[in-house]
Amino acid sequence: MQSNEITAIPELLDLLDVAGAVVNIDAMDCQSKIVEKIIEKEADYLIGLEGNLKGRLNDDVRLLFESKPEGIIFHSDEDYDKGHGRLETRRCTVTEDIGWLKEQYPHWKNLHSVVEIESVREIKGELTTEKRYYISSLAAETKSIFNAVRQHWGVENKLHWVLDVSFGDDQSRIRKGNAPRNMAIVKKASPRLSLKRMRKMAGWDNAFLEKILAAEF
């Protein structure tokens, strides 16, 4: 799946007009050739590092934020989210004083800033902390970077969560022929009905099933 995404992303970018947009990609697809394609399409990038194959780059960025050397300017911003018994504090820290990093990693085109996103969650008095690191072609403007990260998390929360929980996407063993593509269309076709009800109606009514398969909403 990872290799398929790595080859598919540049092909997808060729089909899209992303000029002036920010392309936000998970760590598993952090590849210099993908970055080159993004820049070629006149867009900016914000790409995760944690857990990908670029371990040394991730370690160097992490150590930079942990040590915060004198003479390097860091910009920070915070936001808060409260609900369902959970309080979450998110802190975005950015620096563009990374001349030494660009010298070590010259193949990352237009690398302009590095980012740390720290999430501190409090649930029933219990605290957990998570830190994520990113490379970016954006200037060190915390509000615009924070906004790009939130939008990316929104995809995870609104789409991936629904696919995983409602449709058991991660557990799916559909592999042969066009079946994976067909099921992906069905799962993402979402009229103004609950997913549970939509699945029942598709089983009861062939006309409704055909409408889903045609994605006519």
Description:
The chain is α+β, with helices and mostly antiparallel strands and 217 residues long. The chain has two domains: 2-167, no CATH class; 172-213, no CATH class. The protein has eight helices and six strands. The protein has helices at residues 2-15, 32-40, 55-67, 99-104, 142-167, 179-188, 195-204, 206-213; strands at 22-25, 44-48, 75-83, 86-95, 113-123, 126-136. A six-stranded mixed beta sheet has the order 1-2-6-5-4-3. Helix 2 links the parallel strand 1 and strand 2 (44-48). The longest helix is centred in the C-terminal third of the chain and has 26 residues, at 142-167.
Question: What's a concise summary of this model?
Answer:
Helix content is 44%, strand content 23%. It contains 8 helices and 6 strands.
